[in-house]
Every structure is written in structure tokens, then in C-alpha cells.
Design goal:
Elements lengths: L2 H4 L4 H8 L3 H19 L10 H14 L3 H8 L3 H15 L29
């Protein structure tokens, strides 16, 4: 679901969809806007997705464990571009002292060990 459509949702519905409340989404977006401004200060092509849609896609991807192909198709971009955006968003948000993304653990902790990535115990 694109951010423009998600804006009309109540906070609880938004949280069920994205995994974070609207206030936290706004804080995450502010971090991404700062990082994006620094990145684009050197020049480059404009992104195909807005930062709001990029964050929404990343949160939905982490929440639902979709494939990059499914995430890209939902937002009208290629699988490889969806992968690139999700990884940039995750690395930007999970910097020192920032956010703990859904299913990604605490920053600086075992962030890469979500239940899906852990080995079989037994």
C-alpha cells in the first residue's frame, strides 16, 4: 500500500499495516530525509519512489517477509531496485542509536538474527 493511501488509515490500522505508529514513521522519515539530502548533494538521478513510499515498502517487506519481487511489483519497480532501496533504508535507520526495525532486533545487537534467519535448533 502506498503512503498516500495509508495516510487515511487510523493510527491502529496504520500500525497493523506498517508495524510502526504514524509518529514513529514520521521520525524515521526525518532520518531518511537527512540521509537522502546528504546522498543527493553529490548529484545523481532522482529516485523512482518517494521517501515515504520507500519507507512504507521497507516496513511492509520486513513485516510480511515478502520477496523483493512482490515488494517491487506492489510499488511498480523492479526486484533489484526494491532490494537496493530496502537495504539502503535498513542500513540508514539501523545506524548507531537509531531505530530497531520490526523483526530486526536492537541496533548494535544481533540485528541480523530475526526468527526467519536463525538456524534450526534441536
Amino acid at each position: 500500500m502506498r503512503y498516500k493511501e495509508a495516510q487515511g488509515l487510523k493510527d491502529k490500522q496504520f500500525c497493523c499495516r506498517a508495524g510502526v505508529r504514524k509518529a514513529v514513521f514520521a521520525q524515521m522519515l526525518a532520518v531518511l530525509e537527512t540521509a537522502h539530502a546528504e546522498k543527493k548533494a553529490r548529484g545523481g538521478r532522482p529516485n523512482k519512489l518517494s521517501l515515504e513510499d520507500t519507507l512504507m515498502m521497507t516496513l511492509e517487506y520486513l513485516r510480511g517477509y515478502h520477496t523483493f519481487s512482490q515488494a517491487g511489483a506492489s510499488f511498480g519497480i523492479s526486484e533489484s531496485y526494491a532490494c537496493k532501496l530496502v537495504h539502503w533504508t535498513k542500513s540508514t535507520l539501523m545506524g548507531p542509536g537509531r531505530f530497531s526495525l520490526p523483526g530486526q532486533g536492537a541496533p548494535g545487537g544481533d540485528a541480523g538474527l530475526s526468527p526467519r534467519n536463525k538456524g534450526v535448533e534441536g
